[in-house]
Specification:
This is Metal ABC transporter permease. By secondary structure, the protein is mainly alpha-helical. The chain contains 16 helices and three strands. It has a three-stranded antiparallel β-sheet. Strand 2 and strand 3 form a beta hairpin. The radius of gyration is 30 Å and the shape is elongated. The mean pLDDT is about 85.
């Protein structure tokens, strides 16, 4: 394993994946908070015509030209989406869908034209659709690193402005912030994240890389600062893990493994994140259901006692079951443990009866009083 990690190619891929995870986690957090999760999908698909145009301009697979082209067309798609949503009645998701389909269609047409042109250097250009991490060179890392540093520097410089625009753009506009320009800058930066990941995970899967780390981090924290840091850590860990697993399993593509690793973190976060996870929610609902059932049984016993004008009136368990249409043994046992009811006998009947304790009477009156105040 140690010898494997010392491999030059694996180190290169792992470093590229780590940078991709960091920039995707940081910028994806703002996309998720702005409810633009489809933005990563749109920008990644819109990068395809830029890849083709960069290839045509450079006359070959020159990564710098390809990434610049991808950034340009991705940014154009984002600007088109903003223009459509701000100057028409189209919703954000409709604008994103239009940008995705139009630019991706143009990209497919250009890719088909290049493949039919007979240019010998076009071989493997379609790998940008699904990524080809093994083709990354150390020289490529300098480009990816430069983009990552530039994006993180912009986030640090405009942190307060981005935070305010993400949570309350109306208030941001009211205090004079250039909301439109800030939104454009954020969108272009997300396009930068997409550009960084094109060669690693490809056009098709890059959308998941932008969104998944942020979605996972959102389950564990309520503060933007913590979310951004945690999303970057999840993205970086998922990227490195996918790269290493790809090296261990021969023939396994790196990009899909990275996405699967990050998606696994999302699944675990959705299930067990404290206060937000589905399992916690299921437990909370189960407890509330039991609490509500106990309150209903308690007020039923109180009503029967009031009807018979006897606070200590013993109610038969079968009658309580019939009144509620279900077995109430569990609720009565819980109430007994809380000291609100106690079992009683009612001669000559031999079946179990229940009577309220003084604490139970007080609790039932509290519940009924609260219900009366809510009704009024």
């Amino acid at each position: 394993m140690l010898a494997l990690l010392q491999d030059y190619t694996i180190q290169t891929v792992a470093m590229g994946a780590a940078m991709l995870g960091i920039i995707s986690g940081v910028l994806g957090s703002f996309a998720v908070l702005r409810k633009q999760s489809l933005l990563g999908d749109t920008l990644s698909h819109a990068a395809l015509p830029g890849i083709c145009l960069g290839f045509i301009v450079a006359g070959g697979r020159e990564l710098g030209s390809i990434l610049v082209g991808a950034l340009v067309t991705g940014a154009l798609a984002a600007l088109l989406m903003l223009l459509l949503t701000r100057n028409s009645r189209l919703k954000t998701d409709a604008g994103l869908g239009i940008g995705l389909s139009v630019f991706f269609a143009i990209g497919v047409v250009l890719l088909s034209a290049i493949q039919g042109s007979g240019n010998a250097s076009q071989g493997g250009l379609e790998s940008f659709l699904f990524g080809q991490a093994a083709a990354i060179l150390r020289s490529d890392l300098w480009i990816m690193g430069g983009i990552t540093i530039a994006a993180l520097g912009l986030v640090a410089a405009f942190w307060k402005e981005f935070k305010l625009v993400s949570f309350d753009p109306v208030f941001a506009a009211s205090i004079g912030l250039p909301v439109v320009m800030l939104e454009v800058l954020l969108t272009v930066m997300i396009a930068l994240a997409v550009v960084v990941g094109l060669q690693m995970v490809g056009v098709v899967l890059m959308a998941a890389m932008v969104i998944a780390p942020a979605v996972a981090a959102r389950q564990w924290t309520r503060r933007l600062e913590g979310m951004v840091v945690l999303a970057a850590a999840i993205g970086m860990a998922g990227g490195v893990f996918g790269a290493v697993m790809s090296a261990l399993g021969r023939g396994l593509a790196t990009g899909p493994l990275i996405i699967l690793a990050v998606s696994a973190v999302v699944l675990v976060s959705l299930l067990i994140a404290p206060g937000r996870g589905l399992l916690w929610e299921a437990v909370r609902r189960w407890r509330l259901r039991g609490q509500l059932e106990g309150q209903q049984v308690l007020t039923t016993l109180y009503g029967l006692a009031a009807h018979h004008r006897d606070p200590a009136y013993p109610s038969e368990q079968g009658s309580v079951d019939a009144f509620h249409g279900t077995a109430t043994r569990g609720a009565l046992a819980t109430l007994q443990r809380r000291g609100l009811v106690r079992p009683a006998r009612h001669a000559p009947e031999s079946t179990r009866h229940w009577t309220l304790t003084p604490a139970g009477i007080a609790e039932a009156e509290r519940i009924l009083g609260a219900m009366g105040r809510e009704a009024s």
